[in-house]
UniProtKB/TrEMBL annotation, chains A, B, C, D:
The enzyme's E.C. designation: 3.5.1.2
HAMAP family registered for this protein in UniProt: Glutaminase
Keywords: Acetylation, Hydrolase, Transferase
Protein name: Glutaminase
Source organism (scientific name): Aliidiomarina maris
Binding of substrate, residues: S71, N121, E165, N172, Y196, Y248, V266
Top-level lineage group: Bacteria
Lineage: Bacteria, Pseudomonadati, Pseudomonadota, Gammaproteobacteria, Alteromonadales
Oligomeric and partner information: Homotetramer.
Gene: glsA
Length: 312, 312, 312, 312
C-alpha cells in the first residue's frame, strides 16, 4: 500500500468537523496563569482523541501534542491508590460531591480533616500521602503505572511546571497542614505535597490520555493489552466519582448536559469515559470560569450528542 | 386459565429472593419521627417493584401498599416544572451537587438565594414556587400529572401527614424566607410551602412509583401509554440530577456502589432509573443515618449487582 | 428671668463646634433605603445631645427631631427582658461578639439556634419572643417602659415604618423560623416578629434617647428621677454588650478608636454611654458601609477625644 | 527595721483571701495537653499579682513562679509591631471580634487572608510576620522588649516548649499558608511560624507580667521607669482589643461579668488591665472549656467585684 495515503475513517471525519466548529467559535476563556510555566502555552492549540475498545485511536487537531495534565492526574493517582490500599482508602477520603470551592476548607474543618472526594485538591493530597506512605519511591511508582497504561515510556514530568507548582502551592499547603492537624496525613506534609505537585506536572497528549484510561470504559481491562488494571467494580467506582465530582463546580451541569463521567485539568485537558464504547480526551488551553477548557467542553458535548453517548 | 395460579416470572423469583435476604438482615435504622404521622407506620413493611419497558411490572413483598413518598415527589415536581418553564427554570435553581446538609443554608446565603439543585429542600421549594406561580391551582395540576403518569386516579394525599408537615415546617420556612429575601420566591412564602408540603404528602405504592416514572428509563416516552412525557434530553437531565444529588449525602456513595440515578424519601421509598431497561422502586420505613431506607438500599444494590445494571 | 435668653453653656458651645465640623465634612454615605419609609427622610439633618448625670441635657442641631431609632431599640428591649426574665435570659441568647454579618445564619445553625448576642437581629428577635411570652401586651409594655425612662408620654411608633418593616422582613423571618426549628422561639414566629418590627419603628429624638438611657451611665439609677431601673451589675453588663457588639461589624473599631459602649441604628442614631459621666446621642441619616451614621460617628469620636471620655 | 518581718498590706490580705477561696473551690478544668511540655506542669499551682501605678506589686501564692505565657505574648508582640509599623499594621490585620473558633479559617477565606484581630492565632501570626520582616533578628528584638518592660533580663524561652510547639503546629501552619496564598505573609511561612512559636514559649511569673504591662493602665507610660512605651492613644487601643477579643470565645462573657480588658493564655495565665489603677495577673494551669484558667478567672472576677474595678 506504499504511496497510498491512509483514508480518514468516518469517526475521524466527524472529529475533524467538530474540531473545526470549535475553532470557529468566538474566542473565550483564559489560559491558567497562576504559574508562569502554564501561562506561556500557545492558547490556540486544540486537539481531540477517541480511543475505542478495539484498540484503535481516532484523532483530530493537536492530539499528539503533550500538555500539562494537571488534575487529570488525579484519576491515575486514585487508581493506583485503590490498587494498593483496597477499601481502606475510603477511611481517609469520602466519595461524595463537594459543593462549592469556597467551602473546601470549611468542609475539611467540619468533617475533621476527611476530604469529600479524591478529585478535590484536599482529597488528591490524601491520595498522594497514601502513595508516599506505601511506596518507597512513590513518584517512580506512579510514572511506571502511567507509562505502562499508555504503553509510552517517553511520558515525563515538566520540571519547570513542577518547580513552579511547588513555589505557588501555599493554598494546597494550607489544606495539607489542616488535614495533618486532624491526623489525616501520615507522611511529612512536604513529601505528600511533593508527590502531588509532581503528578500534576506530567505531560501527555490527548492520544496518550485516551489510550491509557481505556480500561475505565472496559470494566477494568485495558483493551490494547488485555491486562486487567482494576476490578470491574473499581472501574465502575472510578467512573462514578468522575461523574459526580470530576468537573469542578460544573460537574452537575456536565452530567446534566453530556451525561458522561469525566475529569478536567487546568492545563486544558478533559477526559470523558463512555462505558463499553471508549474514552474521549479533548484539549485546548483556554478555560471557562469553572476551570474547564472552553473548546474541550464544546467538542465533547457535540460528540456525545451526535453519537448519543450519554449513559442516561 | 381460570383456576391456574399465575406462575411467578424469573424476575419475580429474583425479587422475592432479594426481599427475603433483606428481611433476614439484622434490623437497623429508625423510622422518620419528626412528625407523628410518619412515626406511626409499621416499620417492618418491605416491598419492591420493577417496571420494565415492555409495560410489565414485577413485584415482591408490600409492593402495593401506599406509603408517603416524601422527597420522591421532588422528581414529579421537577418534571412538571421543566415542562411548564422550559430552560428558564435553571435561572432560579442550579444543577450542582450540594455538599453536606450543614451547608444548605450558608450556600443559599453565599449564592444569593439560588439553591444548588432541585432535590435539596430549598431547590424543591423554588420548584414549588414556580408551579404556584404558573398554575391557577398548582396542587391539582401536580396531582393530575402524577395520576396520569401512574394511570391511577386513586392516588391521593394523606391529610394527616400534610397538616403535620406544615406544623413542623420551621426549617423549610427559614429556607423559603431566606430565598424570598433574595427575590427568588415569587409567590407568597406560605403558598409555596403549602404546595411543597402537599406534594411531600402524596401516597403511592412501589408499583405506582415505578410505573409512573418509567418514561425516565425510556428517553421520555411512557412505555404503557406511548405518550411522550418529556423530551429525550430532559429525561437524560433528570436522571443526571438524580445521579449526582438524589440520595442526600449518600449520593456519591450510591453512584459509587450502585451506579444508577435514584431518588430517596424519608418515608422509606427509593426509586432508581435503569436507562433502557426499567425503573425500580423499593420501600421499607427504617432509615439509615443519611435518611435512606436501609432495606431499600440493600435490595436495589443487590438487584443492580445481580443483573449488572450499573450505567458504568 | 423672663425676657432673658438662656446663655449657651460651655458644653453647648463645644457641641455646636463639633456639629459645625461634621456639617462641613464632604458628604458621604447613604440613607438606609431597604424600606421606602426610611428612604424618604431628609438626609441633611444632624443633631447631638448629651445627658449629664446632674439631669441636664445639652444639645446642638436637630437634637429635638424625632427619628426612627431602629436597632437602638434593642437596648430598651434587652433592659426590659433582663428585668423580667433575670439570668434565665442568658440560656436563650449568648453574650459573645458575633463576627461578620455573613456568618449570622450559619452561626445560628452551628450553635443550634442560640444567637451570639442580643444586639444582632437574631438575638433581638429572641428577646422580643421572651417579651411576647411574658407580657400579655408586650408592645404596650415596652412603650410604657420607654416613655417612662424618657419621661415623655408622647413617644410613639411610626406606623408607616412599622408596616413597611413587616413587608420587607423576609430575612428576619428566616432567622426566626430557623430558631423556631431549634425550639428557641416560644411564641408564634409572627408574634415575635410583630413585636420586633414594632420596637424598631419607635421614633425618639437625640434628647429623648440620651435622657432615657442615663441610668446606664449611673449604675442603674435614672438621674432625673432617682429611680433604680436595673441593678448596678446589670447596667455594667448592658454596657459591656454594647462595647463588644453594639456597632455592627465596626464594634471593634469603635472600641479601638472611641473606647465607649455604644449602640447604633440604621435610622442614623448612635447612643454612647460614658460611665459616671453621662450619655451621648448623635443622629444623622447618612450611613457608612457598616450601617453606622457617618456624621454621628464623627461627632461622638470628636467629643470623646476632646473630653477624654474613653473608658480605657 | 532589721528582724521585723514585712507586714502584709491590706491589698495582700485581700489577695490571699481570694487565693484561699480559689484553692478551696472544687477542682475543675484540665491542663493544656496538646504538647507534652505543657501537660507536665504541676496543676495545683496558683498565684496572683497586682502591679499598682505607684510601682508597687502586691502578690499572693505562686506569683513568682515562671509559667508559659503562651497567648499572653500576643500583647507584647502587638505592642512591638504597633511601635514599629504604625497604623500600616491595620492594613494587614483587622480589629474586630472574631466570633467562634470554628469560623477562624472560613473567615480568613471570606476576608481574603486578613485576620479579624491580632489576638486570634492567624492575627498573631501576621504580627509575627511583620516583626520578622522589620527586624533583622525579630526574636531577639522581642525578648529585649519584654525584658526591658519587666526590668528582668532573666526572662527566657523554654526550649522544650518551643520545640514541642513547632512539632505540633500543623493547624497554625495551615492558617499561615492560607494567608500566604492571599499574599498576607511577607516572610517565609517557616520564619513567621518560628517567631510565633518562640514568643508563645516565653516564661514569666505573675509579677513579671503585671509589672511589664503596667503602661497599659497608665496611658502608655511605664510607672516604675517613667518611660513612654506607647502613645496614650495606642495604650487605649490595645486595651480595647483586649476587651473585645482577649479571652477567646469567652471575651463577651468576661466583659459582661468583669468589665476589664484582659488577655489569656493556655499556660493558665490571665492578665487584666484596670485603667488608671494597675494591672492584675493571675495564673493557675487548669483550663475551662474555653481555654481560660478556672482559678485565674475566679480570682480576677472576685477582685474586680470587691474593689469595683469594672470600667463600666
Amino acid at each position: 500500500m506504499e504511496g497510498t495515503p491512509k483514508r480518514p475513517s468516518n469517526q475521524e471525519l466527524l472529529l475533524n468537523e467538530i474540531l473545526q466548529e470549535a475553532l470557529a467559535l468566538p474566542l473565550s476563556g483564559e489560559v491558567a496563569n497562576y504559574i508562569p510555566a502554564l501561562a506561556s502555552v500557545n492558547p490556540n492549540q486544540c486537539g481531540i482523541a477517541v480511543a475505542n475498545l478495539d484498540g484503535q485511536v481516532h484523532v483530530a487537531g493537536d492530539a499528539d501534542v503533550p500538555f500539562s495534565i494537571q488534575s487529570v492526574s488525579k484519576v491515575f493517582g486514585l487508581a493506583l491508590a485503590m490498587l494498593r490500599m483496597g477499601d481502606d482508602l475510603w477511611q481517609r477520603v469520602h466519595m461524595e460531591p463537594s459543593g462549592q470551592a469556597f467551602n473546601s476548607i470549611v468542609q475539611l474543618e467540619w468533617e475533621h480533616g476527611i476530604p469529600r472526594n479524591p478529585f478535590i485538591n484536599a482529597g488528591a493530597i490524601v491520595v498522594a500521602d497514601t502513595l508516599v506512605s506505601h511506596y518507597s519511591a512513590s513518584k517512580n511508582a506512579l510514572m511506571s503505572f502511567v507509562r505502562g497504561l499508555a504503553d509510552r515510556p517517553e511520558i515525563a514530568v515538566n520540571q519547570d511546571v513542577f518547580l513552579s507548582e511547588k513555589q505557588h502551592g501555599s493554598r494546597n499547603a494550607a489544606l495539607a497542614y489542616l488535614m495533618k492537624s486532624f491526623g489525616n496525613i501520615e507522611a511529612d506534609v512536604e513529601d505528600a505535597l511533593d508527590h502531588y505537585f509532581y503528578q500534576c506536572s506530567i505531560e501527555m497528549s490527548c492520544r496518550d490520555v485516551a489510550r491509557s484510561l481505556s480500561f475505565l470504559a472496559n470494566r477494568g481491562v485495558q483493551p490494547h493489552s488485555g491486562d486487567t488494571i482494576v476490578s470491574r467494580r473499581d472501574a465502575h467506582r472510578i467512573n462514578a466519582i468522575m461523574q459526580t465530582s470530576g468537573m469542578y463546580d460544573q460537574s452537575g451541569e456536565f452530567a446534566f448536559e453530556v451525561g458522561l463521567p469525566a475529569k478536567s485539568g487546568v492545563g486544558g485537558g478533559i477526559v470523558a469515559i463512555v462505558p463499553n464504547y471508549g474514552v474521549i480526551c479533548a484539549w485546548s488551553p483556554r478555560l471557562n470560569q469553572y476551570g474547564n477548557s472552553c473548546m474541550g467542553m464544546y467538542m465533547i458535548t457535540r460528540l456525545a450528542e451526535k453519537l448519543g453517548l450519554s449513559v442516561y
